[in-house]
Write a structure and sequence with these properties.
mainly alpha, disordered C terminus, globular
């Protein structure tokens, strides 16, 4: 039987946290919203829907799910709300995705030939 490497041990509770994050960001639009919020340090709904080319109501619905899950918070500044990603775990998950995408662009991917643009 293999011993658990204590340097890479992840507790069952931490697996639960990551599983819940992955459930919430599993939709491509939510994944893209979270990625953009992280890369831009936060932005408002208008910026998000303009960048993604999807209706404002769709962006608002996805942001509501992300807020309910505790991944995103909104800070009111005058007439607008600036959304940011507050979850360190979500930041780490997205960082892994970005690194994987960069390696794929460099030809180092082992996941096949499919390229997805976020």
């Amino acid at each position: 039987m293999n011993e658990i490497n204590s340097a890479t041990y992840i507790s069952p509770e931490q697996y639960e946290v990551y599983a819940n994050i992955l459930k919430v960001i599993a939709h491509p639009v939510r994944l893209c919203i979270v990625k953009e919020l992280i890369e831009n340090g936060g932005c408002n709904v208008s910026t998000i829907y303009s960048a993604l080319g999807i209706p404002q109501s769709t962006v608002s619905q996805h942001l509501a799910k992300l807020r309910t899950a505790g991944l995103v918070t909104g800070d009111r500044r005058g007439n607008e709300i600036i959304y940011t990603v507050e979850s360190d775990e979500a930041n780490r998950v997205i960082a892994c995705m970005i690194m994987s995408a960069q390696k794929s662009k460099e030809g180092k991917s082992t996941m096949g030939n499919k390229n997805y643009i976020l």
